[in-house]
Structures are given as C-alpha cells and as structure tokens.
Amino acid sequence: MQPEFDDVKRFLLNCPPFDVLNDETLNACVQQLKAIYLNEQTVETLFKQHSPALYIVRSGGYDLLLPNGHLIEHLEAYDLFGYPSMLSGREVKNKLSVVHDGIVYIVPERVFHQLRRESNAFEQYFIRAHERRLLEETAGSGVLQAGQASRRREPIANNQLDLRIAEVIQKAPISLPSTASIQEAAQAMREHKVSSVMVVDDERMVGILTDRDLRNRVVAEGLPFTLNINAVMTQAPRSVYGKQTLIDALAVMTQYNVHHLPVLDDDDKPLGMLTNTDLMRQQRSEPVMLISALNKADSLEALVAEAAQIPVYMRTFAASAGHGSAVGRLLASLTDTMTRRLIELYEREHGVAPARYAWLAFGSQGREDQTLSSDQDNGLLLADNLTEEQLQWFAGLAEFVCQGLYQCGIPLCPGNIMASNPDCRHPLDGWLARFREWTRSPTPKALMYCQIFFDSRMVMGNKQLYNNYREQVAKLGQSEFFLGNLARLQNNVSVPLGLFNRFRGTESGKDSDLIDIKRYGIAVINDIVRTYSLHAGLTAPQTLQRLQLLQQSRLLSPRDNQALGEAWQFLTQLRLQHQLEVWGTDAAKNALDPDDLSTLTRRQLKSAFRVIRDSQQGVALKFGRGGA
Amino acid sequence: MFTAVEHWWQRQQQLQKPWQQQRYIAFDAEMSGLEVKQDQLLSMGWLTMRPPVIDYGSAHYHLFSHAELDLKQSPVVHGLLSADFENSSDLRSSLEALASELEGAILLCHNITLDWNFLRRAAKPFGIRFKPLALIDTLRFEYRRMQRQQHHIERGSLSLQACRKRYGLPDYNSHHALSDALACAELFLAQAYRYGATEHTTTRSLAQVSRR
User: Which residues form the Exonuclease domain (chain B) (predicted)?
Assistant: First the structure.
C-alpha cells in the first residue's frame, strides 16, 4: 500500500508555492523527499552530497553565508533555499552555518524540475523569487494568505471609487460654441440623449448648459429659443481633471450640489462630462451618502454626529476595498470634506473670507495615505499685506476648523503642525522663508518638517495663490545641498532586517518582537520617493502618483520604480489588515508581530524590506554627496 | 558451526563501527491492544535512515485484516477504520520484507519491547526470524539521559511527542505507524547528535545506552 505522510503534506500545504500543487503531484513529491538532520557535524555534507537541490527548512535555524563569510540570510522554518543554482545552472558557492539544530527537507533536482513542468504556478513562483519579484503578485490584489495563492483580483464595488475619472467617462463631450442658439442646444441634447452640453470656444470650456437651465432660465423666464446659449449658461462651472479620482468628483458634486461636472485634461481641454448618474453606477451608495451627509451638516454638532459614523463605516469599507491605498484616499477625502464644511460654517458666522487664502493639507492627509489614527497636519497660506483685522479672521477660522476636526475624531497634531498655530499661517513670503531656512540649515528638526511640509495639497481656497506657492516651494526643494542631507537622513533609518535578513523587532519593552511597518516601511518609502520627486521638481504629494510621474526619470530605473510602488502597496495593505484586526483594542496600530503572519506574507515582508534597503542605498549614492 | 561463529564475528566488527556508518530501520506498529498473547498487529510502517538522512522513498506501510478481529469495543483503533482494511497487505510477505531489510541493520523504535514482542510472535508461525544488528529504543535513551542528568521524570514526559518537543522537533499530530516511525527516526538523530555520541562513538556503546 502506498505510504502517506500526512504531517509532511500538511506542512508543505502551508509552505508556498507547494500549496499550488494538486494532491497527486504533492504526494509524488513527498515520496521522493529526503530529510536531513542538520547540525555542526552534518552541515558540511548538505551541499557536498545533496546538491543541487531545493531545500526547505522544517525546523531549526541556519545562516546562509557568502563564500567570504558574509551573512546573506537567516533561514528558519518554511524558508526555501538552494533553488537559484538550479535555475541559473551555476554551482552552489554559498555556505551554511547552523544556529539551531533541526531538520531540512531535500527536494532533489530531478524532482524539482518535474514539479516545475507539472505546475506553471510553481514554476512562476521560483522565477519571481529568483528575480526578487515576490511582491509582484500582491500588486493590486492585496496581501495573499497562505492557501489563497491563486486568488485573482476581482472588481469590488467600493474599489471603483478609486478609479480615475478619465477611465469612467464614456464619450467625448457634447459641445457647442457659445454662439449656438438655445434651440440648437436642446436639439443636441435630444439627439445624443444627454442632459447637458458643454459650451466650448477655441478648445476652452467656457460654460455648461443643463436641461434644468432650459426649464428655469429659459422657459420659466419666457426667453426666446433663438438667443445665444452664453446668455443662459452657467459660466465657469466647477470642473474636475481626468486624472482625479471618483472620490474627488463625488466630493465636489456634493459640496456644491451640482449634478454635472465637466472633466478636463491636463491642458485644460474638455475630456467629457461626468454626471451623478455615472457616479451612482460606479459604486455602492455609502461613501456618497457619507460625504453628502457631511456636506449637508448645517452645524458643528451635526457634523460631529455624522463624523462619528466614519470609523464604523470605514471598517466595512476597508474590509471590502480592493487595496489599502483606496482607504487612505477615501479618508483624506472625508477629512477634506469636513474641513471645507467647517470653513463654510465659520464663514456663515463670521462673514466670507476677507482675502484670498489656501487651506493646506500636509503629511498623510496631503499624501492621501491617511489612516484612522493619523493626526492633523494643516496650515494656511494667506494673501499678502493683510490687516490685523483680517489676520484675526483667519486666526479664528483656523482655531474653529482645527478644533472642529478634533471633535470629528481627527487627533490634534502633537507637534502642533496645525493652522491654529501662528507658525503655520503665513503669506507666501512667510512660508518661503520657512522652507528656505529648512533647506539651507537642515537640522534634524528641519528635515523632519520637510517630510511633512513638502507633501502638500490645497483643500479649499484660491488655486492661483496655491499653485504659485507650490511652484516656488518645489524650486527650493531642488537644492542639491538640501537633497544630500535628506538622502543621508532617510539612509539612517535601518530596515528591520539587520544584516542577516532576519526580522528584527523595532519596538522596546514587551513589544520587542513587533515591527513598526509604518515608521520602518511606509514612511521610508515616502521619504525615498519624496527625495526623487523634489529633485525632479514635482508638485504632486501622493507617493504612487509621484512614482508614476517619475517613470521618465533618469535617476530611478523603471524596475526600481515598480518595486517601490509594489512594496508601498503591500505595506499599506498589510497595515490596513492589521488595523482591522486590532480594531477597538489597545494593540499597536502600526506595529505587528511577524510570527503572526502567513509564510507567504512573511516572505513578502522581507522582500519589501529588501526593496527598501536597496533603494535607500540608491538614494544615498545618487544624492548623498550633496549637503554637509 | 564455523559459519555461525564467522557470522557472530562479523556482527561484532560491524558494531565496532561508528554509529553514523550504520543503516537504521525506524519502525512502528499499531496493535489491537497491548496483550501480545491475544492482540494482533493492525499496521506497521518503517523507513530507512542513514545518518543524517532519512529517505522518504524507502518508506513502507502495511495494514492487516484479521478475520477474527472485531476491533474491540470501538470501531476506530488508532484512527483506523474498518474501511481502511480493504487495502490490506499479506502479513507473511510484509514480515518477510521487513526481515530482509533488518538484515545487518539496526532496529529503531520508541518503546521497543512492545513492537519487538509483537513482531516476533507474528513472525513465528511463518518461521520468519528477525536478525537486526542491534535494537535501539529512543524512549529508553531518553529515560537514561534524563536520569543521568538528574531530571525529574514526570508521567507522560517520555511519550514520543514529549521527547520530540524537548529537542525542538516539530509537532506531528497523526497517530499512524509510518508517521510515528518517521518521528522516531528524527528523534534518534537529535538524541544521538546532541547527547549520545561523538564522531567516533561506536554503535555498540550507543546501543547499550538505549538497551533495556
């Protein structure tokens, strides 16, 4: 009777990529295994007598060393090694040293090749592992759990809010020149079965006309249909850019209570029209309802009451969202909406803003990678030469909004990076003076500020004022001296792998086994990507968007660019899953125990940290020479 | 007579060799009860181990059906169901196969007396004799080691599972003759390398440590 090894099979099923093999293949594999007891006396024989082969650590701990004795990796249960020599055909040169005795399974070369032939997924895993591309399979599809390795990305309703607007609009805009008659406009709407037309002169959008305008402004007023449409259209309507997401569009629609949004490309040319029906079609109603409820709240109390539902709602949303970055974006959008609503509430009490301004979001809100535990980072850019009275108005606004956000559940910034702090309210010159000081004398504190302040977005206010500020700030960020210091700073954070590729806890006390994946992962990637972006003079604050804009960069290779993006997405997703798990407990929000992770996730986490470590060295090499 | 003496002499020589140069048969059997006189062998599993390597390809597993067997009170003994016995092996040929593998090899079991007595009794009607070079009992080895190191030996602390745990070996949860034989082989390697032996320890001295 055919002997079976249930315990060994169970182990292999938890050890990707063996989980992709069918039962028959797995049995055949197990029956051709050898197990070796490895200790100081026997370790020499492994590569001498049983090579080449795939080795699987069943128990014990071992260090894999380069021929010169440098440690490459610490190996523990579920780790695989030895396969590169079979894939490359090169002789095994590395050495192994025993830390703890244990058992290692040997899959002989013949069996390994047989398995590769039988399963494409098995083959692909090793090719990716060999090329250090293990993170690729998670890109966009979330963290894979052991046993689910074959799960593919599926469209999830909520996820759609994350789409770029340009991907959603279906056809070119129905447009007419401003000299067309009202009747022509109505005929065009009938012909194309649309409820609005865009008014375009010389490729520039000058207005829109909707069927509601026909009713309210033409029929109800008794105007003749022969008039030019520019007499009744809405001039310079709210618009969005194709590269923005549906969440952004949603926020604009509910904030201004409009149902039609002209969509423009980067050159301000019309791309199409987005309607609220398009939005409804794309997603479940909850985020819409939440944003619109926030927008409708007509008192601080009402806003606070609506905001109280966000954590509960986010939990459902996060659990069904396709990837972690969607959650960060939605949270940022909710915070933006609350901010705008608070500004409107303040204006209702104290009159409209007495001068041009821009409300700035920094840090995680700016980057749109907010979590529920992220605190406020904001500021005010003011017009020049304000009177004392006008300054008082803005001081009052800042106090009201920051306190309001706090009541809505967004913690106050412990470092006081908030518009309510006079240091965070400046006209253009004042801000530029601060940035200049940080970039010219980069003390550790100044550099820390830079990691927050260089990631900015305007939430509300005057676009021109903001764009001018943003461009000048970007120029200051291109200083080689400054970048050199920034490069050295990010290189000082050591990835929790140490030299041995063994996980190293980053926390102290009873949490010493935990790894803070925000501080030692996500934040480091943000820092690395920021450095490249500043050098390139980019003004976008979002890490993924920055990477996309950096695709043409000569400094960051496409491969490293992709690896950084994948590592960032993986870590963001992992953090989200962790936060969902520890929800409502007082467990650390950003720190997790690698021992609690599935085998594949642990390997991917190591992979992500390796990507970070390599990129840190790259940044240090490319920029580190500048500076003091 | 001369051949018998020569045979004996060869065996003694063989036992003088370092323990790593021997061939071991790790063995385990499941029985319908603990009474050699009335209970029967239900299954047995074994595999070959040449330190420090265990070859899974050498594994054997046999189930035996017994006309007179009512599986006692319970329909399930050692996780075996009546249905399993439909794939049963022939007792005689299985024992012959084992006997030929044991020739010149060392028999390795956890709590060897039980297995050894059952084996001999089952083999007797067929005139089969087992002639392993030596018997090694991992339970006995562990008992002697703990005694020598003056550990307090608690009840249950000598089970295969408990012994493995002390050496940091993985948990195996199936109670299956082959799985236990494998578990026993791994345990012996850990014991021998850690406590029993230096590079040149002879098989004889190792076997004595673990003999009854």
Answer: 23-197
